[in-house]
Design brief:
By secondary structure, this protein is of the alpha/beta class. The chain contains 16 helices and twelve strands.
């Protein structure tokens, strides 16, 4: 894939806080750390020369600890915060060059954002909260209510449309926020740590809900989190961020199998490998001339190793890895799976 078919394309994006941020960007040397820059210039580097692409229907997760710059970055994407330097292209349009009217149109129709703190209007019913973006667009009452009802049902809140936010649990309120973002049918969804305030069980439910919705709606998603397990679960691509920079970008499997720095390695050492690694990553080819009898003991190359565990545990025989066309790509067995999980 190239940047020409990406939905979001960022090149050398900087965000510096201080009195003369543009001048500081020009003076920063590659070897200078964020703390050194602060000490010598009095400026804080929030985002430092970040470049990446997010493609259509992809979930791109930016993961980092508090202060890493991840939330600043996602706000730069929609220009809720103005970048100091760089280029941001969304759907072929240069966000950095958009005027106030063009930015408003971008946020109303093409890009929706879901925040951590829900941002619901307490005096409005669920259906009115969900329909708000359509109301701003000028959609008539009947049309926006019909669309809002569909989104409310889609996120699992059927029957709650006439309730007020205070009558809902935290997880339900976040579903309302998600329904509101989806109601305007945006091409791109930006999530800024939307589930971090939820209890662990509800958080897992919301992660599962987002995965389910993505299989239905195929949106382009940029998701911000400080939770590596959440990043592994949701991301097609994951960027690990530290001190305003991307330390490593890759698929969940690439990060777990080949961490490039000690910082990334610290996150991956306790990763649930059975839930991350796919059969295609660890499978081995069948020897030439080996005859294989296909039966029910088969696994898809994109299946996680946790799905292979019951099959390899039940027999000493190899388990064929078979694609949608019933072509045998290789095999896994008990030894292969256990070695992959123990490395």
């Amino acid at each position: 894939m190239t940047a020409t078919n990406s939905e979001i394309s960022c090149r050398e994006v900087w965000k510096v806080f201080g009195k003369t941020p543009k001048a500081i960007v020009q003076s920063i040397k590659p070897e200078q750390t964020r703390s050194q820059i602060l000490e010598t210039t009095g400026h804080v580097v929030g985002v430092r020369g970040v470049s990446f692409d997010v493609y259509k229907a992809q979930t791109f997760v930016v993961m980092g600890l508090s202060g890493s710059g991840k939330s600043t970055l996602v706000r730069c994407i929609s220009r809720l915060a103005d970048p100091t330097a760089g280029q941001i292209i969304i759907g072929g349009g240069d966000v950095m060059q958009m005027d106030a009217g063009e930015l408003l149109a971008l946020r109303r129709r093409k890009v929706s954002m879901v925040f951590q703190n829900f941002g619901l209007f307490p005096h409005r019913r669920v259906i009115d909260n969900v329909a708000y973006g359509l109301e701003v667009q000028g959609v008539d009452r009947k049309g926006r209510y019909e669309q809002a009802e569909k989104m409310i049902e889609l996120v699992g809140l059927k029957g709650w449309a006439r309730q007020y936010p205070k009558q809902l649990s935290g997880g339900m309120q976040q579903r309302v926020g998600l329904a509101r973002a989806l109601a305007v049918d945006p091409e791109i969804l930006l999530f800024d740590e939307p589930f971090s305030a939820l209890d662990p069980l509800i958080r897992r439910e919301m992660q599962d809900e987002l995965i389910r919705l993505q299989t239905v709606m195929h949106k382009t998603i940029m998701f911000i989190t400080h939770d590596f397990a959440e990043a592994l679960k949701l991301g097609d691509q994951i960027a690990i961020m530290k001190d305003g920079e991307f330390v490593q970008v890759g698929t969940p499997e690439e990060l777990v199998l080949d961490p490039k720095t000690d910082y990334v390695r610290a996150f991956t050492k306790d990763a649930p490998r059975a839930k991350v690694l796919k059969a295609r990553v660890v499978m081995k080819p069948y020897p030439d001339g080996h005859k294989l009898q296909l039966d029910d003991r088969m696994i898809h190359p994109d299946s996680k190793l946790e799905d292979a565990l019951p099959l390899v545990a039940a027999s000493d025989l190899p388990v064929p890895v078979v694609d949608d066309a019933q072509t045998v790509l290789g095999y896994v067995d008990r030894t292969i799976v256990m070695q992959a999980l123990m490395e």
